[in-house]
Amino acid sequence: MKKIQFQIxxxxxxxxxxxxxxxxxxxETYEQWTAEFNPTSTYEGSWKKGSKIYFVGTDENGKRGxxxxxxADNVPFQFVSIRHYGILDGENEITEGPEVEKWAGWLENxxxxxxxxxxxxxxxxxxxxxxxxxxxxxxxxxxxxLKELSEK
Length: 152
Fold this sequence. Notes:
Elements: E1 2-10, H1 14-22, H2 27-34, E2 42-45, E3 52-58, E4 64-75, E5 79-89, E6 92-94, H3 98-101, E7 107-115, E8 118-127, H4 129-150
Helix pairs in contact: 1-4, 2-4
């Protein structure tokens, strides 16, 4: 497992960036920046610490799939930590077995640091060599979209 990190400066308050990133005011803002990962990306559940949350989308055949996760921590406007522990296959949660074992427990962390009206967002994610190129290409695009949405 490897840790990858990306950072971007956004000309908006930490509160606005946080709310935009998580889609708290309008879920569409979450869906728009995460569309870089999957055009049908959304979530179901709560961002409250300890809550289960599904990160879902549909594949080219319209089948629902995604991640089963828990909000490990959430300090509004400062930090969010997501622990992934399963996958969704249609309506079925899979939380054990070979498909899940290679990445179960991975963390995805977001930090928000505001200084003089500029918020620095830092993402840190666990990954493997298999996904490294994909994330190195996709994360910067997703963060650019988040910047665009937050600065509106």
